[in-house]
Amino acid sequence: MYIMYADEADQDGSKEYLIFAAVFIPANNAINIHRGMEKIRANLKLDKSTEFKFSPGKLPKGISRQDHAEAKSEVLRVRTHSQ
Questions:
Q1: How far apart are the first and last CA of the chain?
Q2: Residues facing residue 26 across a β-bridge
Q3: Does some domain include residue 70?
Q4: Which of 13, 26, 55, 71 is the most buried if burial means most Cβ atoms within 10 Å?
Q5: Which domain holds residue 4?
Q6: Residues 78, 31: contact at Cβ < 8 Å?
């Protein structure tokens, strides 16, 4: 079984197009990805209710652009095997 994560690119209703992407992950890898994301969020001191988006226009309060960019790079390195 696979889990699909899908997102659209910053839609605010003003654009005439929609960019949509999906990533499929084997369900048995989801917990390791979740744990990796929890570590990244903890390093940024983000609570569970704070959005962590890739868009630099959606910087969480108190997070610098540099820290945000580094955290996004960490997200891309999250492994699906045990960490």
A1: 22
A2: 2
A3: yes
A4: 71
A5: 1-9+29-83
A6: no
Flag whether 17 is in a domain.
no
What is the rounded CA–CA span in Å between residue 55 and residue 8? 11
d(CA 48, CA 2): 24
Per-residue b or e along 39-73, where b marks 16 or more CB atoms closer than 10 Å to that residue's CB: ebbeebebeeeeebeeeeeeebeeeeeeebeebee
Instruction: Report residue 20 as tokens.
Output: 């949509």
Asked if residues 18 and 11 have their Cβ atoms less than 8 Å apart, the reply is yes
Per-residue pLDDT of the chain (83 residues; tens, 9 = 90+): 999 988 877 666 677 777 888 889 899 988 988 999 999 999 998 888 888 887 777 788 888 889 988 998 898 888 765 44
Amino acid present at 44: L
In the block, residue with structure tokens 């929890």: 38
